Description:
The protein is an alpha/beta fold. The protein has helices at residues 11-23, 34-43, 60-70, 84-92, 105-124, 156-167, 175-183, 192-205; strands spanning 3-7, 27-31, 48-52, 75-79, 97-100, 130-133, 136-139, 144-147, 150-152, 172-173, 215-218, 222-225.
Amino acid sequence: MKRILIVEDDKTIAALEKDYLEIYGFQADVVSDGKKALSQALSEEYDLLILDLMLPGLSGYEICKAVREEKEVPILMVTARSDSIDKIRGLGLGADDYISKPFDPMELMARVRAHLGRYERLKGTDRQENVSFGRVTIDTKGRKVYLEGQELKFPKKEYELLLFLAMNPNMVFTKEQLLNQIWGYEAMGDSATVTVHINRIREKIEKDSNHPKYIETIWGAGYRLNM
Length: 227
């Protein structure tokens, strides 16, 4: 049974999330305090985190950053704010997805199942051992990325996006195609998610992220990894 940690200080919302998760066969734990949530997320094994942003003790941003430094668990952020900057900040810290309050519980369940399924498929896929282009090498067995032999820190979604592009070189993909391929949903997504992750990847592998050599923007079409 998949274990999910709900980090939410609104008791009504937390109870709703827990009820729906349990109906769909998940084990759900609820924590309302940020510090306790971080300790529990790091000390116990969870398959996914549902993380509110505004919490007592520690913010969802702080929890997301700390967890992402230690674990490759999917993180779904829940926010009452609709500002794009808050969403972009969360994605930039390593969150896999976000959903705004108020939300449809069925949409939440769809996203939870999509991320769990995609993560399991990625872990279980038997890929070739290494994929290389330019100064970059991707170790698909160890799920690591190296730049001229130096290991880089790559959160899960950044890794998945880079690997997908590297496995399909010289092909142009729209933001919507990448969103569907990596995040596993289409209509629910925001193409800004892709832009944020592309920019963060460029900052790590390009000599000049403002004039990228590897991941090229094809204006009006999408992105292409040149190999």
